[in-house]
Request: fold
Amino acid sequence: MKYLALILAIFPLFFSCSGPSGANQTEVAHEKMQVLNTDSLYEMAIMAYENQDYTLAIQHFDALLNTDSSVADAWHDRGLCHYMLENYEKAEFDIQTSMKLDSTYAPGWLQLGLIYRKENQANKALKAIERSLDLDSSLAEAWFEAGALFMDQGKVNEACFRFQKAANLGFDPAKKAINRFCNE
Reply:
């Protein structure tokens, strides 16, 4: 919440009615973003992400990473933005960069697995998702996605086992998958 006040104070600077317009306004806004500290930029990026303005979130993450390229969370979250925009190549690059900075971040491995799945690389996807589960076995979505990968391969028993793990962790889509595929 301490960042919210800062963001609200700075927000008008980016969208003032007076001053340059068009491309010049974009340049001025970019310069102002670079002056902000990394915490402020991160908060602004997250706000844009939560508002599903992924392009704006990417711009904020770009400014942050230009200031400090060692922020693993920023690489990861910018990768999520690219993923949401279906730019899987950029998403993969950002997530891999994040994982190089912090290879113990289980959600990063899960996200990498989701990217590989979208790129039809099932073996790489399963390895990444299993790595996420090795790091954190409470990731219900990882259990579910592993189940979906096994289901894609026609391995129903393996899929149902993983769906059940996800359901036990309260993941509703897994409960639906069990009812649909595993109770026959």
In short: DSSP finds eleven helices and no strands in the chain. The longest helix spans residues 54-67. The chain has a mean pLDDT of 86.
